[in-house]
Every structure is written in C-alpha cells, then in structure tokens.
C-alpha cells in the first residue's frame, strides 16, 4: 500500500520493545466474535457500591525520556459487568499515606481518634483521611468552611481569601496547594477531628475513558492514565487517583471501580460508516476501544485516526498496536502529530488541515467525526480546523460550514468526549 506523505509508516527499526503491551487479546476473541449488546449495563455495581477489581496489568507507556508518565491499566471485571466503547470507568482512589500523615502531624492527632463518616458509621480518623475526605488539591470551599470555624476571630491572612470580592485571590492561593498547606499556614483552628467532615469535600471517584472492547477482552476493562505530578510551594505533589494508580495499584492488587455509561459517544449503528477519530494524548483511549470493537466484530466501515503527543521517541502510545491495525487493514488512514519533534509545534488540527480534501471526502461519504482529550484548547482548535475543511471542501462561507456541522451534530456524526 502506498501511504500519503504525512501518514506515519512505522518501520521494524521504529519498534521499541519498551512500549510493547502484553497481548491480552482473549483466546476466545476472534474476528467473527458476536457484537455485544448496543448499550446498557447489567451491573449491580455503582459509585456507592463499587466492584473490587483486580489489577491485571499496570504498565508505563511513555519512555524514560518523556516529560509525561502515562500508564496502561487492565482490570478484571465480574461476569455480567458490561460496557460499550465510549463508556468510562470510575475508579475510587485513596489518599496516599504521606498526605494522611502530613495532615495528622499538622493537626497533632494520632489517627486513632474516632469519627463518624458521612453515613454515621464510626471509623478511625486515619481511615477518614485515607478514604473519605478530599485532602488533596485545596478547594476554595474548604478555605471558606475552615474560616467559619474561627467565628469572629478569622486570622487576617485567611480573611483576605474570603468573599466574592476575593475570589481571584483565593483561586491564586488554592492553586498548587493542598489542605495540609492551609492548616499549616493558619494553625490552631481545628479543635476536633470530626470538624473536617464540615470543612472538606468527599473524596470522589475519577472517571477514565475506557480503552478496550469487552468483545475482545472478556471480563476486562482497560484505561490510559496520565499521572499528574508537580512541585509547588516547596513540595512534591501528585494527583490523588492517577498517583494511586501509578504507585499503589500493583498487578494482583485491587481497586474499587464502577462502569459509567456514555451514550453521547458511540460508534455508528451503521457498521459500514467511516469513522474519523481525533485523539491526542490520553484522548486516544476510546479510539483504541473503537478500533478493537470494529476489528473483533468484523465491521466494514473505514477508520482514520489522528494521534498527537509530544515526541515520537518517548510518547508514541500504542505504537505497535497502530502498526498492527494498519497492517491488518482495520486502520485505513493514520496520522501523527508529534508537537515537539521539530522547532515549530505541530498539532492534530494541522494534520486535519493538511488533509482537508480527504477529510471532506470522508464526511461526504457519511463519516462520523470523534474528538477526545483536552477540552480547554484542543477541542476548540479541532472544531475550527473541521469547519475550515468543510468550508474549503464545499467552497462555501463559514456560515454554511457551520450549518453543515450543525446537521452533522443532529445526525450524531460529530461527537466529543472532552475533559
Ligand atoms: C469523562 C472523563 C474521561 C476522562 N478520561 C481520562 C483518561 O482517559 N485518562 C486520563 O488520564 N484522565 C482522564 N480524565 C481525567 C481524570 O478523571 C482525572 O481528572 C485525572 O486523572 C486527575 O485526577 P487525579 O485524582 O489524579 O488528580 P487530582 O487530585 O484531581 O488533581 C488534579 C488537579 O491538580 C491540579 N494540578 C494539576 N497539575 C498541576 C500543576 N502542574 N500545578 C498545580 N496544580 C496542578 C489541578 O487543579 C488539577 O485539576 C477524564 C475525565 C473525565 C471527566
Ligand atoms: N484533570 C486533570 O488534571 C487531568 C489529568 C490528566 C489529563 N488531563 C487532561 O487530559 C487531556 C489530555 O492530556 P494528555 O497529557 O494526555 O495530553 P495533552 O496535554 O492533550 O497533550 C497531547 C498533545 O496535544 C498537544 N496540544 C497542546 N495544545 C494543543 C492544542 N491546542 N491543540 C491540539 N493539540 C494540542 C500537546 O502538545 P504540547 O504539549 O507540545 O503543546 C501534545 O502533543 C488534557 O486536557 C489534560 O490537561 C487532565
């Protein structure tokens, strides 16, 4: 097959065993495996009553030179737990021991003190801090509630962070800080461990786009997680859940999980329809699920993926799998945009622009267009590039392109899963 110039052709030398993901394709999964039910969960497990899932694989996808730590996770599911590509999995994290100990030390408690949890069950203060209270990134609400404990005697520095007039200042203060920083800077306010239930929010589950097809991996769910680590105000910090998955979710260990349906992000019902998938970074997750699903259920529709990351040598997530999908014909077009491989940044939308004529041709053939990943900038820039490609393709005005896109949205041919 002759590939267009900007299509990445992965050579044998380009293969890097470091990135090799254990082939977990079930022996029972074949190209003729039946399609799973279109949607609907039969699971009895919820965020309040999660399933205790065993971790089967926990593997770093990015190379040691990478600025990012992105991990591939495979977890086991019970018979009857079902999901559809496009869904998410909720993971219920715990706070790391260092964070719990930091709070105990700052408040001068041992952790053995007894408190009542949100359901009025008696537990130790240490368990409350580990499993129930959001002691990670500091919320503005927690600052306000903390100040309320002072009555009339709010310390001057804390007072400056309160009220609508001081919103910007409070946001600046909370950025990069955790609860421990607040109680260290303004000590002596907590007089009983139970008060923390009024100050702090609950520790909530985090959602992750599912990166697998259950038809290909029965009783499994896969995810791709970017681990959040940063150094602020003189301390090493990490995201609660991504840090939990990176450091405290070893193979054989367990994590509480539940499945979360997302009917707004679905493969076309018409299995012959072409599909265009724009997935930079961890945004690639649902498209791995889509490709697996289309491959294992023998769907005939064409597939085009545009993947972006920082550097090809260290950040090419699922490189081997993309190569295999290209070779097997599941993936008809594949472009990469490695932003930092050259002087000038190149993003997924640049590949769309370079291939605008082909993009419009696919749309005219009835292609479904999907975007996943960063909501703040990428999703908007991709939409702009899509509108430009449409306007160019039909030689029309921006308004006419917008109408075309609106019609696509109505027909569910433009779907986004951005966060
Ligand atoms: C539908 C959906 C699907 C998602 N899919 C995925 C996915 O497939 N993969 C994935 O990795 N994530 C995904 N996410 C994001 C994921 O849910 C979590 O939000 C993410 O993993 C962070 O959670 P955490 O507990 O590790 O970090 P938290 O403890 O929640 O901390 C994150 C916060 O840390 C702060 N922070 C981060 N970096 C810095 C910094 N440099 N300096 C100062 N503060 C900083 C910010 O306030 C940020 O919001 C998805 C989210 C949604 C809603
Ligand atoms: N809630 C959280 O704290 C949390 C946790 C994990 C992930 N996320 C979010 O999840 C998304 C994915 O994160 P990720 O690290 O996997 O990937 P990412 O940050 O989206 O980066 C993937 C690629 O997209 C590029 N990029 C940057 N700006 C872009 C733009 N405007 N348009 C198109 N591409 C752009 C990046 O280039 P450069 O980096 O070279 O500019 C990189 O090459 C991001 O929104 C990230 O913030 C959030």
TrEMBL record:
Residues 10-25 have a biased composition (Basic and acidic residues). Its EC number is 1.8.1.2. GO terms for molecular function: flavin adenine dinucleotide binding; FMN binding; sulfite reductase (NADPH) activity. Keywords: Amino-acid biosynthesis, Cysteine biosynthesis, FAD, Flavoprotein, FMN, NADP, Oxidoreductase. One of its GO terms (biological process) is cysteine biosynthetic process. The keyword Oxidoreductase applies. Residues 1-46 are annotated as: Disordered. It is an enzyme of class 1 (oxidoreductase). Gene3D superfamilies: NADPH-cytochrome p450 Reductase, Chain A, domain 3 (1.20.990.10), Nucleotide-binding domain of ferredoxin-NADP reductase (FNR) module (3.40.50.80), Translation factors (2.40.30.10). Coiled coil: none annotated. Residues 28-38 have a biased composition (Low complexity). Its cofactor is FAD; FMN. It catalyses: hydrogen sulfide + 3 NADP(+) + 3 H2O = sulfite + 3 NADPH + 4 H(+). Residues 48-268 form the FAD-binding FR-type domain. It holds the Pfam family FAD_binding_1. One of its GO terms (cellular component) is cytosol. This is assimilatory sulfite reductase (NADPH).
